Amino acid sequence: MAYRIAITSSDGVNIDTHFGQSGGFYILEAADDGKSWETLGYRNVPKTAETASGAAEQSCNGHDDARLAVISSMLSDCQYLLTKKIGLKPYRFLQRTGLTSLELSGSIAPIIEKLTAYHHHNRLHRRQA
Fold this sequence. Notes:
The protein is α/β, with parallel strands linked by helices. The chain is built from three helices and seven strands; from the N terminus they run ββββαβαββα. A five-stranded mixed sheet has the order 4-3-1-5-6. A two-stranded antiparallel sheet has the order 2-7. The radius of gyration is 15 Å and the shape is globular. The chain starts with a strand and ends with a helix.
């Protein structure tokens, strides 16, 4: 079964961008074999996520709750987020919404193969639990 991955990348080839500095995410769909995948597109993150009152709530490093909620919604069809670096607050926020964030860097292709092994391992453990 195929699964989707969000990636922070400056070029769509390498994982080389920090979560908080990313203006958007490349979305990939990986085949279950881990050897084939395709880029489905790029999703831009709005510059400012506003609260219901219309005022932007900012916290350290731009990881405000409104912005995280927007990103979580944008990536709701993805199982994984691959990023060079992610802070504890956004990591926990996304984890609560079901998105597994992994800190990695380098070329996407070999990382997707390793992620598939990780994905299969986790699926087996969830079935056995």
